[in-house]
Amino acid sequence: MATPSPLGSAARRRTPDTAPDGASQYADVPVRLDEELRRAEPPADPRSDSAVLPFLNPVEGEASGNDTRTVLIKPDGATLSALRTLAHRLEIEERALLLAAWASLRSRYTRTVNQPISVVTDGPAAPELRPTSGPLGHPVLVRLPIAAEAAFALAARAAENALATTAADEHLSGPAHRPETSFRYQRNSSSHSVELEPAEFGESPGRLHLDCWAGPAELTLIIAATGGGVAESDLVSYARALELLLADVLTDPDRAVGRLRLTDQVEQPPPQPAQQDPVLLRFLRQADRVPDAPAVRCGADVISYRQLAAWAELIAAMLHDHGIRPGDQVPVLVPATVGTPAAILGCWLAGAAFVPLDPVWPRGRTEAILRQLDPGLVLVPETVEQFSCSVDVVSLPACPPSTVTFRPRLVSGADVAYVMFTSGTSGVPKGVVIGHAELAHYAAASRLELELPDRASFAAVSTLAADLSYTAVFLPLTSGGCVRLVGADRAAEPQLLAAEFSDRPVEALKMAPSQMSALLTETADARGWLPTEVLVLGGEPLPPGLVERVAELSPRLRVYNEYGPTETTIGASCQLVRLPADPRCASVPVGTTLGGCALTVVDDSGLPLPPWVPGEVIISGPGVGIGYLDEVQAGRDGFGERGRRQYRSGDLGRLVPGAGVEVLGRLDDQVKLHDYRLEPQEIEMLLLRQRSVEAAAVVARRDDRGLATHLDAYVVRGDGHGSVQAEALRKALGRHLPPALVPTAWQFVDALPLTRNGKVDRDALPPIEVSTTASVGPDDSVVQRLLAIWSDVLGMEPISPDDDFYLLGGHSLHAMRLVSRVKEAFGTELSMASVLSARTPVAMAALVRERLSEDPDLVPLRPTRHLDGTPVSGLLGSGDGSR
């Protein structure tokens, strides 16, 4: 086929000059077609289809109004002969083959199966169109069920059947709503070729036409995008994709629609940077360069680079004394304390990798990880209370003087830096092994991308058991900056964050978009806690509106969008967000590179896709990790040889011209919930281990921004267990999962709905409505005050003393606020772990009373009020009753 030829922003085509006087010309076809569609129904939004072609939406800076862009395709003689031979072999008409190709292309761009197309039938329906030269007919709505895994030949036969029914439907009044795309096939019996000249094609925004003119020895395909706002490059790319799809069809008509080639472009990998020194070595250089500069600050605790290096060396010596040797893996409890970075560096100096454990995890989850590691000990900061497990618990030594005698072992790039555990489909957490070389690449590439000044401070406000926060740890430690660790209670309150940063603002801050959104909701002015230079948002899709709000609050702040699964070492792409946002994108694109890492969107065959076509995001480059722990332990290759590794992310994305990859969701059921990467199958497998459960399905529910908010569980009771209740299953899951991952709502069903393939039909499971318990006025003043705090934090009334925190939609950010509000109201501080385990106001009241019993004269610092502003009767101390 010839390369598609763009015809400009205003082009007109006409039939030969033999048309009778007064007859409509071929150039008027799109105008007439649009008018006929308008007559067929009331005006409607052309983008009202469930899935639209995004590049048809208006874009600022492109032509608008009535402008039309067109592209011409003229197959050569050999291609035309092959096309007509194939149609004959499939026993279908040529127009059916072309319609199937047109519909298949749209299906690939929109991932829709049963898509509407307006097909112009033979014979004009409107009286004023009857003298038209060439039989412009009546538009009929046709739906073609084209699945990605279906053979194209089947799609072509479906198109033949659909066209056969259009004659019977021609008398109908028109389609129920206006489809985004239309198709018309016209035979030209004349020996003259179709000519083109400028014209207006109509005013319908977001409408894409394919006009096919077939002659005895030629075929002309003209793609017209009407209404303006379409980039010429996008239309040319679409036409080229149609050409390549047809070429693949002619080679193998039985190839699956999802595997037909759409682009001939070859992805060029980014230049590979030089190998970087490990983070440990670069930290030690900074300790020599700025020994007295603050290295880590957490609240009032501050340690210098000199102190941090000495502390890490002492920890390494202690680990060696406990039998830790190079290549071992050391589990480390990682609260937000100055000792946590020292523990990480100490493991490295001993030649070992660290494995982060969250203090709020239930013991069952921690034990599941320890069983995979079989470690000799768990390293625990002294600040963590009442931690116990099945292996020896070793506390960190106190921070020593600046001189120690232990001579540390320096790591190499081939050594393992850390093992991060994420959710696994088998019901057991899955370990991801990251090497020092991968971490060194990320630290160097990210610092270069963010353009941070030397010795910049970076704040971490999320758990150190997830790699989202590691940007804020390893970037400053390799550049002489200060790591600012913020505890969970302070990270959830804008006022406390502002107090944290008021005297010493931070240059950079990183958090998840949902956390940023929650913080902005809590305050009218975020300037007190926003960083001065850089804000990095990652871990979730970034809504454009969130960036716009940040820009209003701090116009000079640079906002970056980072993307990267745990398997690709914190981040694999990072990009400065520029406004205004592209209206064609639901979330902000993440770019395509970070250092030597690159994102590619591929089809089911692993071939690159053109812009706007959804496919799987593949990540390649020096940031891809070593592999999964079980693979490494078994001596398998994991993710492959370093430098040639590729990781299939399972994320669905599309390439947006000039902006990079927009992540659209998941190809599987994996979700991100409250900073946890979750496989619903992990929870389902844990449920199926219960004798009382015959079958189970877990579905993540999302808010209007597409962010996962909670989980619904659907359970089929086993024989003989008809009385089992949700509370028993919640407790069983709570022994293995963090509270945030225990389903919020439960429903017992007789059977789970299944698809035709015998899989659980999750789309057929309706969201479960959660209602609060009937409110009971408590006599206990502690419970009464807590009910008011819960109502304020969760934004709902009434709340009963026995209502479950997670059933009411609570999550980790709400829990952080509860810690802060309880401290403000009662003068006592609860740990995050205790709050997450005490999931009712009554249970939390017991914790508060236990703390108050240690000092019976404690009184609340400030009266608490109901949502309507009325005060709650206060808690009286044992003294004179003053408040």
TrEMBL record:
Listed GO biological process terms: amino acid activation for nonribosomal peptide biosynthetic process; secondary metabolite biosynthetic process
One GO MF term: phosphopantetheine binding
GO cellular component, one term: cytoplasm
Stretches assigned to the Carrier domain: 777-852
InterPro entries attached to this UniProt entry: AB_hydrolase_fold (IPR029058), ACP-like_sf (IPR036736), AMP-bd_C (IPR025110), AMP-bd_C_sf (IPR045851), AMP-binding_CS (IPR020845), AMP-dep_synth/lig_dom (IPR000873), ANL_N_sf (IPR042099), PKS_PP-bd (IPR020806)
Swiss-Prot/TrEMBL keywords: Phosphopantetheine, Phosphoprotein
Region (Disordered): 1-68, 168-189, 858-883
Compositionally biased region (Basic and acidic residues): 31-48, 168-181
PANTHER family: FATTY ACID SYNTHASE, NONRIBOSOMAL PEPTIDE SYNTHETASE
Protein's name in the database: Amino acid adenylation domain-containing protein
Organism of origin: Micromonospora sediminicola
